[in-house]
Amino acid sequence: MSTGVWDPNASSSTQENANNYQLDADFLKKIINTVNIDDPRSLDNLLSENEIKEHRDIMFLSKETWFSTLENFENEELLMLIRFFTLAEVQFTNWQAEEKSPVIWIAKLLRKRKYAIQKDLLIWIKNNNKNKFLPFGPL
Fold first, then answer.
1. Are 40 and 82 in contact (CB under 8 A)?
2. Model-level pTM?
3. Of 27, 63, 99, 104, which has fewest CB within 10 angstroms of its CB?
4. Could you read off the pLDDT of 42-78 as tens digits, one per residue?
5. Distance from C-alpha of 106 to C-alpha of 111, rounded to nearest angstrom
């Protein structure tokens, strides 16, 4: 697991930055096809430091953006993304999204599809991330 270094000169992600970020389905497919969720260290080599910085605003996109981008993804692919973003929020610098986490929007999309997230995944999320809003958002 890699740990981030706080840089006081680095700009933090804001909703304004997220509004300028373009969510790329191909980037999401790369994640799905590359990451090995059984080995959390696989995130260490998945993205370069530049990619981590370039894509950090992915964590702050709106529900509408996520729903429209993911409408043609299979449920199993969405589950892989939930696992990736659960780990990414912990492992990547400036990817802490709290109540704006993509995990929440992806979980809501699965609920909209009447797909129930299994209990073992819910436990896995809680064991791998301390974000109190995961997976279903603020109550």
1. no
2. 0.84
3. 99
4. 787 888 899 999 999 999 999 999 999 999 999 999 9
5. 9
Distance CA 33, CA 77 (A): 9
Taking the CA atoms of 126, 12, 49 and 32 in sequence, report the sign of the dihedral they define: positive
Q: Which residues contact 102 (CB under 8 A, 6 or more apart)?
A: 58, 59, 61, 66, 81, 85
Helices (H), the chain: 15-20, 25-34, 43-46, 49-54, 63-70, 75-91, 102-112, 119-128
Q: Which two tokens stand for residue 92?
A: 């990547």
CA 10-28-94 angle, to 5 degrees, is: 20
